[in-house]
Amino acid sequence: MTAKRLATLLLAAMGILFFSCQSETIKTQVTSPDGTLTASIGLSDTGQPYYWVAHKGTTIIDTSYMSLEVKDLSAFKNGFTITASETSTMNEDWEMPWGEQRTVNNHYNELKVSLEENTVTPKKMNLIFRVYDDGLGFRYEFPEQEGMTEMLITDENTEFNLTADHKVWWQPGDWDIYEHLYNETSFSNIDALSKANHPNLIATYIPENAVNTPVTMKTNDGLYLSFHEADLTNYAGMTLKVDPASLKMTSELVGSEILGGKAKVSLPFETPWRTIQIGEKAGDLIESNLLVNLNEPNTIGDVSYFTPMKYIGIWWEMHIGKSTWDMEGSQDMNTYIEGSKNSARHGATTENAKKYIDFAAANGIKGLLVEGWNTGWDQWINTEDREGVFDFMTPYPDYDFDEVMAYAKEKGVEVIMHHETSGAPRTYEKQMEVAYNFMKENGMNSVKTGYVGKIIPKGEYHHGQWMVNHYEKVLKDAAAKKIAINAHEPIKATGKRRTYPNAIAREGLRGQEFNAWATDGGNPPNHLPTIAFTRMLGGPIDFTPGVFNIKFNEYKEENQINTTLAHQLALYVVIYSPLQMACDLPEHYTLDGQTHPAFQFIADVGVDWEQSMVLDGEIGDFVVMAREEKASGNWFVGGITNEEARTQSLDFSFLPQGKTFKATLYKDAPDAHWDNNPEAYEISTMEVDSTTNMTIEMAAGGGFAMSIMAP
Ligand code: NOJ
Ligand code: CA
Known about the structure:
- This protein is α+β, with helices and mostly antiparallel strands and about 700 residues long.
- The protein is about 15% helix and about 35% strand.
- Among the domains are: about 5-295, Beta-galactosidase, Chain A, domain 5 (Distorted Sandwich), CATH 2.70.98.10; about 540-550 and about 565-710, Aldolase class I (TIM Barrel).
- Helix 7 links the parallel strand 22 (about 415-420) and strand 23 (about 445-450).
- It starts with a helix and ends with a strand.
- 1-deoxynojirimycin (NOJ) binds near residues 315 and 511.
């Protein structure tokens, strides 16, 4: 069929809605398996490629141009002709070793368009579109071609042309950190530069009015869109530059002053996928598997050395200022703890570690994280030269490493290693081999890494190509030693956990820690109802929920958690991670010498899932999820709300028919309130089956959690 005939047919099919693109000629297109989505690709009069996307016949991404600029060469932009166009289909199921669900269906139609310039020495570039029923991904491919082995990409200009001034949940396109709050504004009111200079962010760089991804939107027609990237490999992270006037976003890659560009690549090369998730309900975005599907299958084999688990740790006590990471008393980390200088109260002592181990063993918690166990914390922050500060081998003298490890082993508790690199990846790369061997010799299978501070060398950023490659090297080298990684201050999650399932979790958001010391009031009640539909689309989050002592006035009167206790419980279901911390202090989980009654939910809740579903939710307002635990057949339901109280109806038809389950409900007491009365909760038990319906009241900033145990 000629392109013209195809265009005519399409015009007939798409009717008036097509007219927004009428000046363009469709060259080729691809439709999702059930026909919901169509991506069309064309060439402008000057031979520049563009695409647009329709949902059920309505244009949702209008004509969006594509190009890349390269050092010492003309741009990959104009003068292209289409030399070939191929389609193919994939429909496969694959198994997650751990995850939100056991089996993932990967079903898409692919279109590969080969482009060649109309010049004497033509450059070649292919566009690959994979269209699913719940979204699409597209990438640029640079095939091997004469006279080109390498290129330095200085800019990628992929447009996302919106059809109206949508409502957007965004955070600034910071090259160094994802620890900003999400903002809710119309697209035309995005002002990322107003978010610069946050008092609690040590490393932050927002060069222009751009947003980071995932960035999520709601259209006036009630459609939900989220823009992100998948398979970020050997390339720079993508921010999206905002043009409020034309309602257009354009990719802006994170740069490097050392490289003098954005990404240096060898041919053949393919960029990460630029992704758009599309849902008719907000929850569809969470249920979508687009991002993992657009990554390569597992290349590291068996990861059974890591089992999903809950953990406690010598951690929150440093953040609230009860103790310190260092024992020298010389640290000055006023970002974390006001006035801790010269008042060291070392947290990671042998005795304290044993106290945590006892609590874990007595309460069914498998893991223990110990921060501040190794020397170097007196100089890890606020210094320009942070190379060589940590060696990841030498414990502080009051921490008997062998004794703690032996005690943990005896009690059946697994110790999680901690490597704070303090933003010095070169030092870390030199030490990784020895540090990982040391871990394995001591029976440790997972490590929490951290990259606090500006990256050394100066001129590199957390989200540039150099660091993308560092984070991947860590995953690869760790996998070779059978070690799993939970990275803080990481690169964004783009579904690479499919390829490297030892990438168990990461931070990459404003975590619980901000409530301990942020000077802007901490995370507001709408934080996690927003995170679920934005950051969480990328993958597992080490948010570290579970604070029971909501006000912690004993340590910091000016800070608090801005949710109820029941909301904290619900996070174990709502915020997905195969590694979930119960972050509060053992004494805060103890009431009258007994384990706090609400801790039973944390002890019971699963961390590895057969299936997950969103029962209800609106971005930034509330979200209710249900997950079925692998193997046990137990179900867990969690609901959280923002600063508004609400009545939530629950329909249990997700349960298998004909079975009666014993349920325990943990909910806000009638007078609970995130600020006035956050710890007031109620526990009740009942029988439920697939025909049960009930309503549950969530307090302002509140929530509920329910364990539903299989018979
Ligand atoms: C930042 C991490 O997010 C936090 O969890 C950790 O305690 C500190 N860095 C120290 O490594
Ligand atoms: Ca952090």
